[in-house]
Amino acid sequence: MISTELLLQCAIAGLCILLTISFARARGDKLSFLPYPPGPKPLPIVGNAFQLPQKMPWKTYAQWGKEYGDLIHFTAFGQHIIVINSAKVANDLFERRSNIYSDKPHVPMVNLTGWDYVIGFMPYSDRWRQHRRYFHQVFRPQQAVKYNDTIRRKVRDLLRRLRNDPDGFGDHTKYWATDNIMSTVYGYDLDPKGDGFIELAENAMTMLSHAVFPGTFLVNSLPSLGYLPDWCPGTGFKRYGRQCSEMTTAIQEVPYKITKERMEQSGPFPCVTSDLIKRSIASGRMNAEEEGVIKRVAGVAYAAGSDTSASALQTAILAMVVYPGAKCKAQAELDAVVGNSRLPDFDDRELLPYTEAFFREVLRWQPVTPLALAHATSSDDVYEGYYIPAGATVFGNSWAILHDERTYEDPEEFRPERFLHTDGTLTDKFPMSAFGFGRRICPGRHVADASVWAAIASVLSAFDVQKATDDAGREIPVKVEYTDGLLSHPLPFKCRIVPRKDASVGTI
């Protein structure tokens, strides 16, 4: 049922649309004679606004893609929306025409919730380039290896937690992911008794997901609603924004303060924030503006890195339960290459093709961000005879691309072999769409890749993950079900996690 607030917003929206149309006509906008890409038939004025899926839009867009093609178009209150459902089109537009497809749409709820400091939401500008450059300085491949010792230490802590409390694996994966990124970014180890950093990141990301999810807040389609006074009915989105903004401020300020105070007491130490501060001081650039950039870069890495890594590891554990054949093949390879006297390490990675394929299939099977953050076109474009206007919102549908039957046979199945040649060697295929597209691809992907790979390989090596049993000894069925939102997580499920090898477990 449509809420009263939404109805009020729609009533106000009608007036806003008429004013927008009048303004556009007054400017003399030139419409292209070429057709837009195909898509569902729109209604007058509102377009397809009331056809937008409220749950798991990536699956609806993938279904529309089967009907209309790899490039689909629809509108919501005059805003043009493009969805890309194939790797070829994504490469053609996001990579080969990145000068056009690297901007960001204006999403009012991003500003209202305080997330406008995230480079994923910044418009393509000098400010975006500055933040991207800082990310690259500390997260590029050559730099990312500096954090391998931290990754190893946090994986061992994860294994100890799983050994001591296997039933709490859901909480342990969240703790591991947040602890790993906090140590990498701030040099801070989480307090096992609780310090609020896990909850802060999780709650903030949940609110962000709700704020930017297509179709959730009408103000994202009709920015004019943002000018309504707070007392006006239908402005609950403003209260929501203020609540979230408090958390986004804390994400930037609180951990940064801890790191800075530690540096003042004992000097620089290995972590992203310390490295950035040290570089800025050495170059003579450190001032309030520079410090703000460092806070934002670190805060984004903390908030985004904790939730995404936890989801990926939970998906790996789910795959071990539902697809024991794949799990056993990876374990056999680990036993043969690594043995049982130590845990797998980064030097082993190229010697473990099936384990690598298992990791890649985790990213493909259930991508953490099934619908990538929106891009926007900075100028008009024509692709294969279709007109794509400037200012259009463009989504890369990671789910559709990674479940494309033309590339991945039986895509709903978890099958690591799809990344292997018949002789068992790795193919050059990698589910890069799981990290985003073009110039907007995740800048922290190299650290995320290393962290999640190490965790998956170590869990496979040290433990046997099985279906849980009831009091009568019967296996409890496990369903592959995921949450909705910007980030997708497995719904809670039960499993048994038991040590495989005394020697291997003893090393943790």
From TrEMBL:
Keywords, ordered alphabetically: Heme, Iron, Metal-binding, Monooxygenase, Oxidoreductase
Required cofactor(s): heme
Pfam families: p450
Keyword field contains Transmembrane: no
Positions bound to heme: C442
Pathway named in the protein's UniProt entry: Secondary metabolite biosynthesis
GO molecular function, a single term: iron ion binding
Keyword Iron: yes
Similarity comment text for this entry: Belongs to the cytochrome P450 family.
Protein name: Cytochrome P450
Gene source species: Heliocybe sulcata
